[in-house]
Design goal:
Number of strands: 11
Structural class: alpha/beta
Strand content: 5-15%
Mean pLDDT: 97
Helix content: 40-55%
Low-confidence stretches: none
Radius of gyration: 20 Å
Largest sheet: 9 strands, parallel
Distance between the termini: 41 Å
Amino acid sequence: MKIASLDLGYRPVMLAPMEDVTDPSFRLICRELGASMVTTEFVSAEALIRDVASTMRKLDVHDAERPVAIQIYGRDPEAMVDAARIVERAQPDVLDINFGCPVKRVAGKGAGAGMLRDIPKLLQITSDVVNAVSIPVTVKTRLGWDCESKIIVDLGLRLQDCGIKAITVHGRTRSQMYTGNADWTLIGELKQHPSMEIPVIGNGDIASPEAALDKFDTYGVDGIMVGRAAFGAPWIFRDIREYLDKGKYTPLSPAEKMNLLRRQIQESVDRIDEYRGILHIRRHLAATPLLKGLPSFRDTRIRMLRADTLSELLDILDEIEGKYLS
């Protein structure tokens, strides 16, 4: 699969952009474990043009994590163009536009998935951004605003006409948020449309190698994107890649998975500071499948998620590994 001249190989598996999740360390780990491309946390266009320091730091990308996309969101065409030009100076491989974020503070203000209620402006923003930069522009969006307006097939074709080089579709409407099951039917319909020429990437409910293969085989998509299933489990990219390439996969041992979690913790602390770094990583620790279903684990889990120093947290992980995973 190619995005313009960027070759991501056969059946690429990409890391989805996720706020407060896809930081530089996590992106690098996912790339090392087989992700074909990674994407930054989404970046507010308005904050970029105001030169907000915390937002500008999201533009930091490193050669080791390439290919990497930077994703922006906003509702004002002029601000999106200015932000796109700022992003281009950071030299990502791809500039992605977010028309899919469903959370109220974004969509409720007309950005992200909120743009699905104003298609003319959505198309204007896309066209203006494409014309403003020389790097490939892609779009990530949803099936539509709600079940009565699943417009993705027509919208995908119109976005293609704007000049984007690939489209990623999450198989839910904005109204669904993250509930229910992702519906890939229209993703497949968009891919199979005779006028569709750019890559179609599917997203939603890919939580196993078997699910990944099924999406490729059933819907014919060019690539897939993994989001929430990577929380606390960056090894999912390794498993999927092996399964797609070899028809089988050998999971990492519990000790190897625990070492990856330790690395995430340490690098989070190194990147931010001890207190905030641990707060940042709790989402991964709470979600990791490595610790799901362990017997008599409740009290230990509570201690793990309340630990506020690095030494305390690492000691608890050592205890967990020795007691439950050895």
